[in-house]
């Protein structure tokens, strides 16, 4: 299942421990600011490292990037790999809640 999820629904799932956020941006973007607790899995590493980083293919995974384009690509690949409970959170630019990071860079 691949569906869009809005930030309000996503934060409820994350706060309840019912989902995990996955950031598919590059490490420097992640360091600049990311959703608290999000796993870093750059888009270029999704195919090679998803099984290691995201072992439960049936768990709810909230995938995001900067604007939503990379998250859509990552979800397409993850679906091909057998992941069944994927949510496209889109871009962190639309995330109105807390973020962690050094904030020196830009999202």
Radius of gyration: 12 Å
Assign a percent range to the helix content.
25-40%
* CATH fold description: Oxidized Rhodanese, domain 1
CATH level 1 name: Alpha Beta
Could you give me the name of the CATH homologous superfamily? Rhodanese-like domain
Task: Please list the strands of the largest sheet in the order they lie side by side.
Answer: 1-5-4-2-3
Stretches where pLDDT falls below 50 for ≥5 residues?
none
The tally of strands reads 5
Main sheet specs? 5 strands, parallel
Roughly what is the average pLDDT, rounded to an integer?
94
How many domains, as an integer? 1
Q: Distance between the terminal alpha carbons, to the nearest Å?
A: 28 Å
Task: Figure out the total of helices.
Answer: 4
Structural class: alpha/beta
The coarse overall form would be: globular
The H-and-E topology, N to C, reads as EHEHEHEHE
| CATH architecture annotation name | 3-Layer(aba) Sandwich
The percent range for strand residues is 15-25%
Describe the overall structure.
The chain is of the alpha/beta class. Helix content is 33%, strand content 19%. It has a single domain (2-94), classed as Rhodanese-like domain (Oxidized Rhodanese, domain 1, 3-Layer(aba) Sandwich), CATH 3.40.250.10. The chain contains 4 helices and 5 strands. The protein has a 5-stranded parallel β-sheet with strand order 1-5-4-2-3, with helices on both faces. β2, α2 (27-32) and β3 (39-40) form a beta-alpha-beta unit. The chain is globular.
């Amino acid at each position: 299942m691949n569906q869009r999820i809005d930030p309000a629904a996503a934060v409820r799932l994350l706060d309840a421990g019912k989902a995990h956020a996955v950031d598919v941006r590059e490490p420097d973007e992640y360091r600049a600011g990311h959703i608290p607790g999000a796993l870093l899995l750059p888009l270029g590493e999704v195919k090679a490292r998803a099984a290691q980083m995201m072992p439960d293919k049936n768990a709810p995974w909230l995938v995001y990037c900067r604007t939503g384009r990379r998250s859509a690509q990552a979800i397409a690949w993850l679906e091909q790999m057998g992941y069944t409970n994927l949510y496209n959170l889109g871009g962190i630019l639309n995330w109105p809640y807390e973020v962690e990071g050094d904030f020196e860079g830009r999202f």
